[in-house]
Amino acid sequence: MKAFMDENFVLNNETAEKLYHQYAKDLPIIDYHCHLSPQEIYENTQFENITKIWLYGDHYKWRAMRANGVEEKYVTGDASDYDKFLAWAKTVPMLIGNPLYHWTHLELKRYFGVEEPLNESTAPAIWEKVNAQLNSGEWNVRDFIVKSGVEVVCTTDDPTDSLEYHEKIKADENFDVKVLPSYRPDKGLEINRDGFIDWVSKLQDVSGVSIQSYDDFLQALAKRVDFFHEVGGRVSDHALDTMMYQEATEEEVSSIFQKALSGEKVSLDEEQKYKSYTLTFLGQQYHAKGWAMQYHINAHRNNNSRMFAELGPDTGFDSMNDELLAKPLVKLLDSLDQADALPKTILYSLNPRDNVTIATIIGSFQGGGVAGKMQFGTAWWFNDTKLGMINQMETLADIGVFSQFIGMLTDSRSFLSYTRHEYFRRIMCNLIGEWVENGEYPNDEETLAKIVQNISYYNAKEYFQFS
Questions:
Q1: DSSP string, 10-28
Q2: Cα–Cα distance measured from residue 337 to residue 179, given in angstroms and rounded to the nearest whole number
Q3: By the 8 A CB rule, do 177 and 220 touch?
Q4: What's the rounded Cα separation, in Å, for the pair 56 and 314?
Q5: In this structure, are residues 144 and 415 in contact, taking their beta carbons and an 8 Å threshold?
Q6: Pairing outcome for strands 235-240 and 292-297
Q7: Who contacts 208 (Cβ-Cβ below 8 Å, separation ≥6)?
């Protein structure tokens, strides 16, 4: 029997052990998509206890606690931080087979030297041990980033954001990690959503473009792309919960935009035309800048309307969507390719049913001498489990060129989540090790080492060209 989460955790053969320990383990991290706060990074925030850095904002844990029968006051309510920690400690032993169990203990081990499993009995001592370290000044926000070997952090930012903290971090000579913005214009695409007009007004203010027409709107979006680029942004991101595409002329879309700007709701057909034209325009902007474009597809958000009214979005009440994506996604990508303006693109779906679909679609648009220009993005959200990661990687290997995969990201709001890169690298090395041990690939250490190192780090470094 193997020891609990020992040095060869998830590494089940000799080849996997060698690949991980000798070639993957110590490589830097490029975290090209996350939801960390640039303000907290700039201010080098110190968290007074483990609950504040671990449980605040972590809807993964919140879902598990609710499913374990924990009352909401211990999840997002007014219970004390210690009582919330105890509620989580009682939940953790119930999470056998869940990645949260592994992530929890990797974070306790790697950052705070806690070796024993977290449960109701060990919780008081772990609370004291971890909090003492958090209050020592040795584990502020930047310490987690630097000691994790992070080179680049890409936050998620609205086009109307000032990016003031990104600029302040860039000017700080005492911090070498690049903290770069990602351009996420979702609020400008959701033409039927409450707040659209207010968002357009805010875009007008920050861009300096008087938005009286759709052409003005596009100019304002493009100016913000320019600004993000100046600050160091090289990535965009879109939440496309429902994939849609309809051919439209600029005249049609201009009329639709004016209708929305006057406070009217537009039809589904009009919304599809507006989104299609606007996404195509934005893709052209990204291509011109050499950016990578990310599409996060098929999330079904805010399922529980009562809890949404009480707590708002991103609080653990989302799920997978099952909208069909193949035809509209291909049409959107093709519209950009026809104009020779398809940027480097990373596609993620929250529904693993779409894995084979995405893996085949990206093969239709590869080329231009760019290795892995089109990427099947790493297992995302509900899929960044052990089995979810294996499924995504095996599908990519079955159909595409796995060796050009740009690897893992955290997609997290927690500064402790960098251990997810370790988790991914271990699973990836074990998968490759199995292929070798089964005689499906030669035991060519030089080539294997290169593949492992590229997927862990070098492919992303080459792909994004962060400067």
A1: T--SHHHHHHIIIIITT--
A2: 31
A3: no
A4: 12
A5: yes
A6: parallel
A7: 223
Helix (H) or strand (E) holding 395: helix 386-399
**For residue 233, which of 143, 174, 158 has the smallest C-alpha distance?**
158
pLDDT in tens, the chain (467 residues): 899 999 999 999 999 999 999 999 999 999 999 999 999 999 999 999 999 999 999 999 999 999 999 999 999 999 999 999 999 999 999 999 999 999 999 999 999 999 999 999 999 999 999 999 999 999 999 999 999 999 999 999 999 999 999 999 999 999 999 999 999 999 999 999 999 999 999 999 999 999 999 999 999 999 999 999 999 999 999 999 999 999 999 999 999 999 999 999 999 999 999 999 999 999 999 999 999 999 999 999 999 999 999 999 999 999 999 999 999 999 999 999 999 999 999 999 999 999 999 999 999 999 999 999 999 999 999 999 999 999 999 999 999 999 999 999 999 999 999 999 999 999 999 999 999 999 999 999 999 999 999 999 999 999 999 97
Q: How far is 57 from 455, CA to CA, in rounded Å?
A: 29
Q: For residue 433, what are the contacts with CB-CB under 8 A and spacing of at least 6?
A: 11, 12, 13, 14, 15, 16, 17, 19
Structure tokens at 261: 């700007």
What is the pTM for the complete model shown?
Answer: 0.97
Q: In the 8-state DSSP scheme, what is residue 266?
A: P
DSSP, residue by residue, 236-250: EEEEESS-------H
The label of the residue with tokens 């596009």 reads 218
Radius of gyration in angstroms for the set of CA atoms belonging to the chain, rounded to a whole number: 23
SS3 375: strand
CA dist 445 and 448 (Å) reads 5
Tokens linked to 314: 């991103």
Element (H, E) at 166: helix 164-171
3-state SS assignment for residue 410? coil
Q: Which residue has the tokens 């930047």?
A: 142
Contacts of 431 (CB under 8 A, 6+ apart): 390, 393, 394
Alpha-helix runs per DSSP H in 208-325: 214-231, 250-261, 268-289, 305-311
- SS3 assignment for 77-113: CCCCHHHHHHHHHHHHHHCCCCHHHHHHHHHHHHHHC
| Distance in angstroms between the alpha carbons of the first and the last residue of the chain | 47
CA 354 to CA 201: how far, in whole Å? 37
- In this structure, the chain runs to a length of 467
**Nearest to residue 32, comparing CAs of 135, 151, 118?**
151
Which of 52, 55, 79 is closest to 135 using CA atoms?
52
Dig out the tokens for 364 from the structure: 């239709």
Domains of the chain, earliest start first: 14-45+141-464 (3.20.20.140), 46-139 (1.10.2020.10)
